[in-house]
Design goal:
single chain, mainly alpha, elongated
Length: 86
């Protein structure tokens, strides 16, 4: 089955946002923890590396999920593939 140009654009935009959000996830999960000793400044009264491991990463994960759902809902409407209500 050959994809139409609209479907290709939709899929390309989907892959782009997924790639960007996965890169953010990777940085938050692995890069920040790898360089935790070098991140020795205070953030809200706590060492940044401790705060990032305890609270910051969870907040960023929730923001990634929220942003992806919001972005995809707009993208679905833009390309006419939104879910029908009811």
């Amino acid at each position: 089955m050959e994809l139409t140009e609209t479907q290709r654009r939709y899929w390309r935009k989907n892959l782009n946002i997924t790639s960007i959000l996965l890169a953010i996830w990777f940085v938050v999960t692995f890069v920040v923890s790898y360089y935790a000793r070098e991140l020795s400044f205070n953030f809200f009264g706590w060492p940044f590396s401790f705060w990032m491991g305890a609270q910051g990463a969870l907040i960023i994960y929730c923001l990634i999920i929220w942003y992806y759902a919001r972005h995809m809902a707009k993208l679905d409407i833009e390309h006419g593939v939104q879910e029908s209500e009811g």
